[in-house]
Amino acid sequence: MDLKLFGEVFVTLLVIMDPPGMLPIFVALTGSLPPRDRYRAAWQAVALALGVIVVFAVAGQTLLAYLHISLPALQAAGGLLLILIALELLTGKADDPGHQTTSNIALVPLGTPLLAGPGAIVATMLFVQRADGPPSQLAIAAAIIAVMLVVWLVLRFSGGIVKVLRPGGIEVLTRIAGLLLAAIAVQLIADAVGAFVTAYLQKG
Q: How far, in Å, CA of 146 to CA of 3, rounded?
């Protein structure tokens, strides 16, 4: 298994999903539920997010080929999406959970779009495009599962984590995640620009 790729996928998806940033929203949405229902909501949200990401990971390349989208174009678009998410993390902007009308909050908004959002989907598709054999594919699959396990553990034990970190600690971790995500986004865009320039020079 490609351990370097595993680490890259793990860190990228973990930063995008931002478990510390998810804590306040999760607690706000499930605070009135009994502990058993809160645990079930955490499991359902992670299961749905995993399913959505796996579907896009498997069918992503076929979709790109059908739409005639190049990898540099996808990289640039992914970088722009990640920058938007990073700005939300850095500025503390979050969707108002009070506007949600669905009865099953584990699926919407927790499972999607908070966990399996456009940033995670695009990042996963980019990593799958880079996979060049079974070792790479195994690393990507293992990293996705590992990230989902971490997210589930954070949500499962959200009550204790909130008491330990307190709002100030969660805010600091969220800002750090936003900074890391912004750096990843800039690198994606830089790589895409470099690929476009190389392709242009080769044609010339």
A: 13
Extended beta strands in 5-138, E state? none
Instruction: Using alpha carbons, select from 95, 85, 82, 89 the residue that is nearest to residue 25.
Output: 95
CB-neighbour burial class of residue 94 (10 A; exposed 0-12, middle 13-18, buried 19+):
middle
Contact 47, 109 (CB under 8 A): no
Q: What is the pLDDT of residues 102-126, one digit of tens each?
A: 347 788 778 887 899 878 988 999 8
Q: Hey, what amino acid is at 64?
A: L
The structure tokens listed for 168 are 């100030």
Grouping H, G, I as helix, E, B as strand and the rest as coil, residue 155 is helix
Q: In the numeric block, which tokens belong to residue 152?
A: 């589930």
Q: How far apart are CA 71 and CA 69, in angstroms?
A: 7
How sure is the predictor about 100, in pLDDT bands with cuts at 50, 70 and 90? very low
Looking at residue 133, what DSSP letter applies?
Answer: S
CA distance 186 to 27: 32
Using alpha carbons only, what angle is made at residue 78 by residues 76 and 82, rounded to the nearest 5 degrees?
120
Tens digit of each residue's pLDDT (9 = 90 or more) over 168-179: 777 787 788 788
* Angstrom distance (rounded) from CA 164 to CA 157: 11
Domain that holds residue 87: 3-203
E strands, 8-78, in order = none
The H helix count followed by the E strand count for the chain is: 7, 0
